Amino acid sequence: MVFFFSSTVALLSLLSLPHLISASVAYCSNEEYESGALGQSPYQTYNAAPYKPVQLNYALPPADCPSNSQVSGYLMFSPLGDDLTMTGGGYTMNPNGTMVYFSSGFGARVILRGVFTYQGEDHLGIWVSDGTNTVPAGHGSGWNILLDRTYNVAAKITTSGLTVGADLHELHVTTNNTAIITAFPTDETDLSAYGGSKVGYILNPVAQEIDIATGKAIFTWKALDHISPSECYAPFGTSSTGYGTATDPWDYFHMNSIQKNDDGTYLISSRHCHTLYLVDSAGDILWRMGGKNSNFTMNDGANFTWQHHARFRGPGQLSVFDNGATDWEQDIPYSQGLLLDYDESAMTVSLSSTRAPYNRTNTVSQGSVELLSDGNSIVGWGAMPYISGHDQSGEIMWSAQFAVAGSGISSYRSFLQDWTGRPSIPPSMKVTSPFSNNITVYAWWNGATEVVSWELLGSRLISPLKTTSLANASKTDFETALVYSGSGYTYYQVAAHTANGEILSYSNFTALDGTTFGPAENQTITAAPLS
Ligand SMILES: *[C@@H]1O[C@H](CO)[C@@H](O)[C@H](O)[C@H]1NC(C)=O
Ligand SMILES: *[C@@H]1O[C@H](CO)[C@@H](O)[C@H](O)[C@H]1NC(C)=O
Ligand SMILES: *[C@@H]1O[C@H](CO)[C@@H](O)[C@H](O)[C@H]1NC(C)=O
Ligand SMILES: *[C@@H]1O[C@H](CO)[C@@H](O)[C@H](O)[C@H]1NC(C)=O
Ligand SMILES: *[C@@H]1O[C@H](CO)[C@@H](O)[C@H](O)[C@H]1NC(C)=O
Ligand SMILES: *[C@@H]1O[C@H](CO)[C@@H](O)[C@H](O)[C@H]1NC(C)=O
Ligand SMILES: *[C@@H]1O[C@H](CO)[C@@H](O)[C@H](O)[C@H]1NC(C)=O
Ligand SMILES: *[C@@H]1O[C@H](CO)[C@@H](O)[C@H](O)[C@H]1NC(C)=O
Ligand SMILES: *[C@@H]1O[C@H](CO)[C@@H](O)[C@H](O)[C@H]1NC(C)=O
Fold first, then answer.
1. In this structure, what is the dihedral angle of CA atoms 181, 186, 187, 191, given to the nearest 10 degrees?
2. Alpha carbon of 259 to ligand 1 centroid (Å)
3. If you ran DSSP here, which 8-state letter would residue 42 be given?
4. Looking at ligand 9, which atom is closest to the CA of residue 521?
5. What does UniProt give as the signal peptide span (predicted)?
6. pLDDT tier at 271 (50, 70, 90 boundaries)?
7. What is the pTM of this model?
8. Closest alpha carbon to 143 in 161, 151, 152, 155
9. Which protein residue's CA is at the shortest distance from atom 9 of ligand 1?
């Protein structure tokens, strides 16, 4: 009896231990994850695929956790931070926490920016920097790329006529196939009025619109030409805002979002001036919303400070992530995603709805608000490593974390978006023979969204490579194991199947000793090309 009792207890406690190794789906209300007992950045591992993606935990779980089947699309986010095990890429993940794509291989620092329509087709936008030229911290000089649905680079986008490349704060592709980007050059200026030197240095952020095909700038707006530092709130001469020197310029304005509208105007957000500026194509300011010189009366609850990601959301409506905090100041109890109604004749702004965070925390930097077509919304909590879903009234429905709160791991913006990817690079595989007469093959295909099952094929000879079907397995995670209990085949290959059993791609052949060969001749891809 005693033996049975204690072994049951032992078994139960074993089962409740965190399954850190090879966890494949999101955890649900895992308190050890939240508390940091599993480390600052719990991660997943695979048997063969060389990736260690972050492990999700639904701190506020949906009813069907981990599926979260009420949302459709992919979570797209880009963790940055010292404690990450895998760096240099952003993620596309299923809502259940299994990885679909890790955007590595482009540069040292990579931010996945979501899906954009370019030349009539979906593209993934990615900001890349080689890791140099990131002074001061929080900015970057790099470039943007647009990947087509085969993950080939369709466009490379950077600044034109400036001393620095594209910064990480904005990428937005317009209906005219132009890109809206930010840049943060340092300019010399007289800072004596603010406590600095006569020969002082300031970050003078630039909004540029670039014609993607030619790389030419068709609009360039430099903050300091239009906005005096006296209009802003970031103190001069602190470690967070800069001391006004050439290597530590004053970050007076901090441009962090730009939206180009169909009427040719630009909505520019300045975090450090607490203001959204509507600017015309000549660069003139049509109005200011928020801040010291607001043209709008900000009604109760409609005011914001240190904000991010301002976007028009239809006539008379816009969304903004109200940090209400920086690392040196906290204005409100917790950060929030706002939907605001504005009236350009009465010049008033009113609160439509708020989105509050799980655990009522504030986010000292970064953040985003995405409005979905059904009126629900997704909030990325920036410096807090959480992504949450909200209903039409703004009530929180679920919240997923991709690292421990306070770990210093952040995601600049986070989205839920639809995407179809069919990589031009064939699937990857690894052949293992753990037991005699037992071949286990691991298959994966980074970025492929259409694979529903994998087929294992074998050939006895290298010439001709004549294949026999050995096994099938449905795909439920990034990596899939296929097991063949038998012998007699020396060369193995995997084929990726759609839901209809059509073949999307064949991998190369791999011999039992790991040597790889090209694919067989004349193997037919039966899936229709992407339309
Ligand atoms: C697209 O180009 C047209 C014609 O120049 C212009 O009127 C419109 O404002 C542009 N829209 C955007 C979003 O750039
Ligand atoms: C906004 O306010 C400025 C003065 O602060 C004024 O010159 C300008 O006309 C106002 N614009 C609108 C659209 O009210
Ligand atoms: C908005 O205004 C209210 C009332 O003045 C104030 O309590 C609150 O802190 C302000 N919000 C922000 C984000 O500053
Ligand atoms: C909620 O946030 C507070 C303050 O950051 C923290 O001390 C607490 O552990 C958090 N609670 C949970 C359940 O994460
Ligand atoms: C083959 O190996 C796999 C593990 O790789 C194991 O799950 C399976 O039971 C083995 N089958 C046989 C017939 O040995
Ligand atoms: C695997 O599935 C394909 C059809 O999708 C079928 O032709 C093949 O025979 C199956 N292989 C095995 C070993 O069952
Ligand atoms: C995770 O979600 C994806 C997309 O819905 C699904 O294809 C996959 O089977 C799920 N995996 C698990 C382990 O539930
Ligand atoms: C697949 O084979 C082709 C042709 O031999 C070769 O160019 C390519 O590098 C191989 N790919 C992999 C992943 O082994
Ligand atoms: C592949 O197709 C070409 C053209 O139809 C043919 O000449 C060649 O013999 C085929 N190769 C194999 C291995 O069947």
1. 120
2. 13
3. -
4. 13
5. 1-23
6. very high
7. 0.93
8. 155
9. 264
- Residue 501 CA: nearest ligand 6 atom is 5
pLDDT per position as a tens digit, 248-261: 999 999 999 999 99
Peptide bond into 136 cis (omega under 30): yes
In order, the DSSP letters of 200-265 are EEEE--EEEEEETTT--EEEEEEHHHH--GGG--SPSSBTTTB-SSSSS-B--S-EEEEEE-TTS-
CA–centroid distance, 433 to ligand 5, in Å, is 10
Pairing of strands 153-157, 516-517: unpaired
The set of residues, in sequence order, having a beta carbon less than 8 Å from that of 318 and lying 6+ positions away, is 267, 276, 310, 311, 312, 339, 340, 342
How do residues 406-433 score in pLDDT, each as one tens digit? 999 999 999 999 999 999 999 999 999 8
Ligand sitting nearest the alpha carbon of 514: 8
- Reading the block at residue 101, the tokens are 């794509």
What is the whole-number distance in angstroms between the Cα of residue 452 and the centre of ligand 9? Answer: 29
Ligand 1 surroundings by CB, under 6 angstroms: 174-176, 178, 260, 262, 264
Tell which one of 71, 445, 476 to mutate to probe ligand 7, the residue whose CB is within 8 A of the most ligand atoms.
476
Task: Tally Cβ neighbours within 10 Å of residue 85.
Answer: 14
> Which backbone phi and psi does 5 adopt, to 5 degrees?
-60, -50
From CA 124, how far away is CA 420, in angstroms rounded? 10
Span from the CA of 67 to the centroid of ligand 4 (angstroms): 25
- Indicate the residue type of 485: S
Note the pLDDT tens digit of each residue in 168-206. Answer: 999 999 999 999 999 999 999 999 999 999 999 999 999
- Topology of the domain covering 428-517: Immunoglobulin-like (2.60.40)
Helix (H, G, I), strand (E, B) or coil at 124: strand
| Cα 19 to averaged position of ligand 5 atoms, centre (Å) | 21
Cβ contacts of 397 within 8 Å, gap of 6 or more: 62, 70, 376, 388, 389, 390, 391
Give the residue whose CA is nearest to atom 3 of ligand 2: 295
Residues making up the chain, counted from first to last: 531
Q: Which numbered atom of ligand 8 lies nearest the CA of 426? A: 13
How far is 353 from 317, CA to CA, in rounded Å?
11
Which residues does residue 203 pair with via DSSP β-bridges, in sequence order? 186
Q: Are 223 and 187 in contact (CB under 8 A)?
A: no
Q: Distance from CA of residue 457 to its chain's centroid? A: 36
Report the first-to-last Cα separation within the chain, whole angstroms. 66
**Which ligand 3 atom minimizes the distance to the CA of 301?**
1
**Atom 6 (ligand 1) nearest CA:** 264
488 alpha carbon, distance to own chain's centre: 46
Identify the residues whose C-beta falls under 6 Å from ligand 6.
455, 469-472, 497, 501
- The residue assigned the tokens 């009813």 is 63
Rounded distance between C-alpha atoms, residue 360 and residue 375, angstroms:
23
State pLDDT tens for residues 143-169.
Answer: 999 999 999 999 999 999 999 999 999
Q: Is 129 helix (H, G, I), strand (E, B) or coil?
A: strand
Give percent above pLDDT 90 in the chain.
Answer: 88
Inform me whether the pLDDT recorded for 120 exceeds 80: yes
Q: Is the minimum distance from the CB of 32 to ligand 4 under 6 angstroms?
A: no
For residue 326 and ligand 3, the question of a CB distance below 6 A is answered with no
